[in-house]
Design brief:
- With 334 residues, the chain is an alpha+beta fold.
- It folds into four domains: 73 residues, Arc Repressor Mutant, subunit A (Orthogonal Bundle), CATH 1.10.10; 51 residues, no CATH class; 85 residues, SH3 type barrels; 87 residues, 2-Layer Sandwich (Alpha-Beta Plaits), CATH 3.30.70.
- Helices cover 38% and strands 25% of the residues.
- The protein is built from ten helices and eleven strands.
- It has a five-stranded antiparallel beta sheet, with helices on one face. A four-stranded antiparallel beta sheet has the order 9-10-8-11.
- The protein is extended.
- This is WYL domain-containing protein.
Length: 334
């Protein structure tokens, strides 16, 4: 218990030093107390005043005692480079670490390794005394889809892909084309990295073409960075590419989808609509007629099949016929 108390005192005082301004009139103890509380430390104004007196014996701190309230600040010329991180920063690093590992170049990730370790150590040291330090144990982000394990990615291949993207160099690759069950050779122009669920994709054009394609990184069998500069299409923009529905495995075509839905599905869709223009109208039989602008493609088809017990596609007719055929084929398996 004494060790935990000592760790909390050190962390609190370190944070207090970081809060102090570099010039007069400084900050009074009342304001500093509130800022420490905002950072997750349960502390009284009297404790902060005592901390300031103690720290002024070790650090070049100045108290503006010419008028009330007294303000504290660093003396002119003092070194304000205080290492360490706040509880909020430690929380942020801990919560995002798993999300960004496959999106950051290895060189940048290695430079953050010490920061990630410091964040974990700080939260562990303060978990018994600072409520905010226990936050990672109380929150989680889960996928709304079927929980699948992440594919295994060769760390060296990932590093080379990231480096080629960073350096704007072409890649010579051997790639396992899943649907063709064959390994193919490509020369790629890396354009972007996208994390979709558990799978990381390299968005790239394959010579001699310029259309951006998706390549699942775990399907690369071999990659080599070339000395040739990558060619980026003048009209390529990652945000526009995503908005086109490309990561929904769409060719970019937008359709007006119409279907009837059971109340249980309609209620869910009214909470989380398919699109900004979705319209939901209750029918006389208790079901709902829903229309929405959506991207035509594999992701839409997969969703419609997964909800086939709760909806009936009405339009477009081509999509209605396709779903009907797939349901007939699925029924034949049973």
């Amino acid at each position: 218990m004494a060790a935990a108390s000592s760790q909390n005192t050190i962390a609190r005082q370190w944070q207090l030093l970081k809060l102090l301004p570099s010039r007069a009139p400084g900050l009074e103890a009342r304001v500093l107390t509130q800022q420490l509380r905002d950072a997750g430390f349960s502390v009284s104004k009297r404790t902060v005043e005592r901390d300031l007196q103690d720290l002024s014996l070790l650090f070049p701190l100045q108290c503006n005692d010419k008028s009330m309230p007294f303000g504290w600040y660093w003396m002119a010329g003092a070194d304000l480079d205080i290492p360490g991180i706040s509880v909020a920063e430690a929380l942020s690093l801990t919560l995002v670490e798993g999300q960004i590992r496959q999106l950051l170049p290895a060189s940048l990730l290695s430079s953050l390794a010490a920061r990630f370790g410091l964040a974990k150590n700080k939260l562990q040291a303060l978990e018994s005394s600072v409520a905010g330090a226990r936050w990672p144990d109380k929150v989680a982000s889960v996928s709304a889809d079927m929980q699948l394990l992440a594919p295994k990615i060769d760390s060296d291949i990932l590093r080379q892909v990231q480096q080629a993207l960073l350096d704007k160099k072409q890649l010579e690759v051997s790639y396992h084309a899943l649907h063709q069950n064959a390994v193919k050779q490509y020369r790629l122009n890396p354009l972007a990295l996208v994390q979709r669920g558990q799978v990381s994709y390299l968005i790239a054009s394959a010579e001699p073409y310029t259309d951006p394609l998706r390549f699942a990184i775990h399907r690369f069998k071999q990659v080599e960075i070339t000395d040739t500069a990558a060619v980026t299409p003048a009209d390529f923009n990652l945000q526009r590419y995503l908005a086109s529905g490309a990561m929904e495995f769409s060719e970019g075509e937008t359709i007006t989808l119409e279907f009837s839905a059971k109340p249980v599905l309609a209620n869910l869709l009214q909470e989380t609509p398919l699109s900004a223009d979705m319209v939901c109208v209750k029918l006389d039989n208790g079901d709902y007629h829903i229309s929405a602008s959506v991207h035509k493609g594999w992701q839409l088809n997969l969703w419609l099949m997964s909800q086939s017990s709760f909806l009936t596609v009405l339009a477009p007719q081509e999509l209605r016929d396709k779903i009907k055929q797939q349901l007939t084929e699925a029924l034949a398996n049973y």
